[in-house]
Each structure stands twice: as structure tokens, then as C-alpha cells.
Amino acid sequence: MHNSSPECQAARLASLGPYLSVLPDALISVITFYLDPRAVARLQATSKLLRVFACEEPLWYHFATTSYDGQLLYKVIQSILCN
């Protein structure tokens, strides 16, 4: 967590809950790579902060190049789910 002010900690706790709020951002980001695209789409609907992680460009690039076999769908899928 970059900013450890009490206000930021309270906002993070409110957004992520008691379990995920203790994890570093980098670990949450890595965890999203183990989810399938549908799970990530559901994840982004749970909180504003998780939406940020779920809409990371490298994540959708990964999905497009591994799950959907092509970069063409990458921007289409990301734009549908994250805009």
C-alpha cells in the first residue's frame, strides 16, 4: 500500500474488506491473473478498488493472447467490460 494514512487505510478496508485489505496491491494484481475472464468481470462489479485491478490492461492482454488466441479481441473485450 503506497499511502498509509488513516483515511486511505479506512477507505481500503471499506472497499476490500478485512481479508483483502491487508494484501499488497501487487499480490492482488497477481491473483487476478489466476482467474478466468468471467470471474474477473464479476470481480470488477464488487468494489471500485477491485474494478481498478480487474481493468488492468496487462490482465486483459493476457486473456486475449492465452484464452482467445489473438490480440484483436483484446481491445474489444477490455472496452466492453471496463468502460
How does this model look, in words?
The structure is a single chain. The protein is mainly alpha-helical and 83 residues long. It contains 6 helices and no strands. The chain has one domain. Helix 5 packs across helix 6. The relative contact order is 0.12.
Number of domains: 1
**So how many helices?**
6
Instruction: Name the helix and strand elements from N-terminus to C-terminus, one letter apiece.
Output: HHHHHH
Spans of at least 5 consecutive residues whose pLDDT stays below 50 are: none
Instruction: Label the structural class.
Output: mainly alpha
Helix content: 55-70%
- Describe the global form: elongated
Q: How many strands, what sense, and barrel or not for the largest sheet?
A: none
Q: Give the termini distance in whole angstroms.
A: 25 Å
Beta-strand segment tally: 0
How would you state the average pLDDT, rounded? 83
Backbone CA Rg: 14 Å
- Beta-strand content estimate: under 5%
Overview features:
single chain; 83 residues; mainly alpha
Give the SSE map.
Layout: H1 6-20, H2 25-32, H3 37-43, H4 48-54, H5 57-66, H6 72-82
Brief rundown of the structure:
The protein has 83 residues and is mainly α.
